[in-house]
Amino acid sequence: MKEIHEVYVQTHFSAAHCLEGYPGDCARLHGHNWIIEVYVRCERLNEIGIGVDFREIKDSVREVLQGLDHFNLNELPAFRSVNPTSENIARFLYKELGRILNREGVRVSKVKVSETPGAGAFYWEEAD
After folding, report:
1. Contact at 8 Å (CB) between 36 and 111?
2. CA separation (Å) from 109 to 38, 45, 98?
3. pLDDT tens digits, residue range 5-14?
4. pTM to 2 decimals?
């Protein structure tokens, strides 16, 4: 049986957004302190028992979030053609972080984005 370790980091960023076409208050510009969790699967551990260094994940997340923190998400290129919902933000982060972190034996497995502590969305991809 193949052993898999999954590690994660949690952080946050602040940004505004509005949901075009939404039938309620969220259609107006408003802000959130978004809570982000990034999960990374590791197929093996190094000689000291680490699959991927938390610092590497945190640095990568910080790099990507710099482009979102304290912005109106609707004005960013990534969200000009899609609403910046929790679901779409999770997909964006998954793909951007995958470009940075993915390599043999290490892969971003899922991303969770929460608008509030009790409501959020996960995004991951599965092979067909």
Report:
1. yes
2. 8, 17, 9
3. 999 999 999 9
4. 0.95
